[in-house]
């Protein structure tokens, strides 16, 4: 298989992986819209909010000011009506501010209130939005830092897409809550309560009448809100299903076209789109009908109150300005109550999101340094010892991966691990990196039990080249520098030369600064492997773990990688999971594993002479290479 073919295959696999991941994330969006049963989880946001007492104080100040000015406007309108239009000469207030019939002063005062209200509202919005963005940024960083510190066993039962969706969807809900919903809820609550109190101050009779018809006015708002919310959620779910289907299809477009499935996939997507349209149409219809009902009830209720108020004005019980002021307060109270019902749903969804995020923040790693913590000798020699190690993966506790394994890896020597799939070779790497701890037995490096080492200190002594060579979005230099952040350009290029990667990197459009795309899928398998080797070389660790994945590469790529393997192994403790005979022949020692046990060990010649599993593997897997070597 040549580099171009491998490159195309890698790109196709990456596109399919991205498509299926995106589809899975969309399909899980419905779960993230689930509400909490109470607002209690929101209390756990308090430590994040209290970090910014200044922003909280500024927001509170301008919230109070904006609410007060909102409630002041109806009073200003009352003055305009009573002292300007109605000219109520007996009103004491009108006497004190008599302007001789000129209304300009009233409107200037009203304009000043409006300007102050606009400024207070703008500052309230600025401070609460800034607070929301800051809190969400802190939560995202805290959750991500926690996720980076959790051991791989945590991810066995947790889907990565689910975790990433919590970092995006759930934090967005919290951002909406802190940066908008809470502000709206507090402002609306303050103005609604204030409006009701002032309604009683203006006319207790009208206020009692308003409270009597209020539930009739609010009932349609509450009922319609719930109904529209259910239909909106169904519409979003249908859209997510359609998008997921499209993502899966486009992510595997070559397979779809190869099997001539275009008509069926088009029909399937059309069905999903039509379902989305029908649900949306139901939502629009319900909202249109209920909008008419809501307007009828609200306006009918207000007109009824206004009618009674008009009779009060005619009898002289209250002034025209007072009824104007009362109607404005009534509108503030009714609209505020309706807004609170919608905000409550957002608050409960954000409470559910907070609960899920706090679950991640509460998660702890089961890989920690046992007390008293120790340090590796400096410099690290790299002598590794496994003693009676038994281990089973948490997901398969009844299936041992290693059974009473005792091994020594001499410092500065190369040891090859061979054996059939599932023999326990990769588990040796997993335990040495302390991604997991064995159920019994122990592992030491230079005589220090690795359970006494802090995981970062242990892993800094190890370089690894994995079988699938995971790379990252960014440039070629960025991917190499991943092995040692802060390395200069010269060190990066020296590592690339040692890994036989310099030539193809310089041939890229922008050389070492060429963006490689998501997962570096634009590179062939051999190029990716050489970049991974360069990354491990730059790390310059005393222990090197090589998962030799050259079986799917062409001969030229394999030759270049073998040369790079030899360079990185020189003078270091190297453990190689061997797939090709070339590595086995040059290893100082070969360990044969089978069903989690050490079946045999020795040199290539010794193992062949003894027969057994290694001889059978050599005959089946390495026969062509053996013939060429002999």
Structural class determined from secondary elements:
alpha/beta
The parts where pLDDT drops under 50 for at least 5 residues are 1-33, 625-630
Task: Please list the strands of the largest sheet in the order they lie side by side.
Answer: 6-7-8-3-9-10
Mean pLDDT: 79
Q: Can you give a write-up of this model?
A:
With about 625 residues, the protein is of the alpha/beta class. The protein is built from 22 helices and ten strands. Helix 18 links the parallel strand 7 (about 545) and strand 8. It starts with a helix and ends with a helix. The model is unreliable at about 1-35 and about 625-630 (pLDDT under 50).
Topology, please?
Elements: H1 3-27, H2 29-32, H3 46-50, H4 53-85, H5 92-96, H6 104-149, H7 160-202, H8 204-251, H9 253-258, H10 262-315, H11 320-362, E1 384-391, E2 402-409, E3 414-418, H12 425-432, E4 440-445, E5 448-449, H13 455-460, E6 462-465, H14 476-481, H15 489-498, H16 502-506, H17 525-539, E7 543-547, H18 555-569, E8 573-577, H19 581-586, E9 589-594, E10 597-602, H20 604-610, H21 612-621, H22 623-629
Parallel strand pairs: 3-8, 3-9, 6-7, 7-8
Antiparallel strand pairs: 1-2, 1-4, 4-5, 9-10
Summary, kept brief:
With 630 residues, this protein is of the alpha/beta class. Helices cover 65% and strands 9% of the residues.
Distinctive features:
65% helix; 630 residues; 22 helices; 10 strands; alpha/beta
């Amino acid at each position: 298989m040549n580099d171009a073919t491998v490159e195309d295959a890698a790109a196709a696999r990456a596109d399919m992986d991205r498509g299926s991941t995106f589809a899975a994330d969309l399909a899980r969006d419905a779960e993230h819209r689930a509400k909490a049963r109470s607002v209690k989880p929101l209390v756990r946001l308090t430590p994040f909010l209290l970090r910014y007492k200044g922003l909280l104080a500024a927001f509170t100040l301008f919230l109070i000011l904006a609410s007060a000015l909102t409630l002041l406007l109806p009073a200003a309108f009352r003055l305009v009506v009573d002292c300007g239009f109605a000219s109520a000469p007996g009103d004491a207030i009108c006497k004190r501010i008599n302007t001789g019939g000129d209304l300009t002063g009233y409107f200037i005062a009203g304009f000043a209130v409006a300007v102050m209200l606009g400024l207070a509202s703008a500052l309230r919005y600025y401070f609460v939005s800034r607070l929301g963005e800051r809190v969400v940024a802190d939560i995202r960083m805290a959750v991500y830092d926690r996720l980076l510190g959790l051991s791989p066993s945590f991810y066995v039962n947790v889907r990565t897409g689910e975790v990433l969706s919590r970092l995006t969807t759930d934090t967005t809900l919290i951002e909406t809550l802190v940066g908008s919903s809470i502000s709206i809820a507090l402002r609306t609550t303050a103005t609604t309560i204030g409006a009701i109190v002032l309604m009683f101050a203006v006319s207790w009779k009208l206020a009692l009448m308003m409270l009597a018809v209020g539930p009739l006015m609010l009932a349609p708002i509450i009922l319609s809100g719930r109904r529209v919310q259910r239909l909106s959620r169904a519409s979003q779910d249908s859209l997510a299903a359609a998008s997921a289907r499209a993502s899966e299809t486009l992510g595997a477009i070559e397979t779809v076209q190869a099997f001539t499935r275009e008509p069926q996939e088009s029909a399937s997507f059309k069905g999903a789109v039509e379902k989305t349209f029908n649900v949306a149409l139901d939502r629009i219809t319900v909202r249109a009908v209920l909008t008419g009902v809501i307007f009828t009830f609200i306006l009918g209720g207000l007109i009824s109150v206004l009618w009674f108020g008009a009779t009060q004005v005619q009898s002289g019980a209250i002034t025209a300005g007072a009824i104007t002021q009362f109607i404005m307060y009534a509108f503030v109270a009714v609209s505020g109550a309706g807004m609170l019902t919608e905000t409550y749903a957002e608050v409960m969804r954000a409470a559910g999101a907070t609960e899920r995020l706090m679950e991640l923040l509460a998660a702890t790693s089961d890989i920690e340094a046992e007390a008293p913590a120790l340090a590796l000798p400096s410099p690290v020699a790299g002598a590794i010892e496994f003693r009676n190690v038994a281990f089973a993966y948490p997901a398969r506790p009844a299936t041992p991966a290693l059974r009473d394994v005792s091994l020594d890896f001499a410092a500065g020597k190369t040891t090859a691990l061979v054996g059939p799939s599932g023999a326990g070779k990769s588990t040796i790497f997993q335990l040495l990196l302390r991604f997991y701890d064995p159920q019994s037995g122990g592992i030491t490096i230079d005589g220090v039990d690795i359970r006494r080492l802090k995981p970062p200190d242990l892993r800094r002594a190890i370089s690894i080249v994995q079988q699938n060579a995971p790379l990252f979005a960014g440039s070629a230099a960025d991917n190499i520098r991943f092995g040692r952040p802060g390395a200069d350009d010269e060190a990066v290029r020296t590592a690339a030369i040692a890994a036989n990667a310099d030539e193809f990197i310089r041939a890229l459009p922008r050389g070492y600064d060429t963006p490689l795309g998501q997962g570096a899928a634009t590179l062939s398998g051999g190029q990716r492997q050489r970049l991974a080797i360069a990354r491990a070389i730059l790390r310059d660790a005393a222990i090197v773990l090589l998962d030799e994945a050259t079986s799917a590469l062409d001969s030229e790529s394999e030759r270049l990688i073998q040369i790079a393997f030899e360079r990185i192994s020189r003078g270091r403790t190297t453990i190689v999971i061997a797939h090709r005979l070339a590595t086995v022949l040059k290893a100082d020692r070969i360990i044969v594993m089978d069903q989690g046990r050490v079946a045999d060990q020795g040199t290539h010649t010794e193992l062949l002479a003894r027969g057994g599993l290694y001889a059978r593997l050599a005959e089946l897997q390495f026969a062509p290479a053996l013939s060429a070597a002999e």
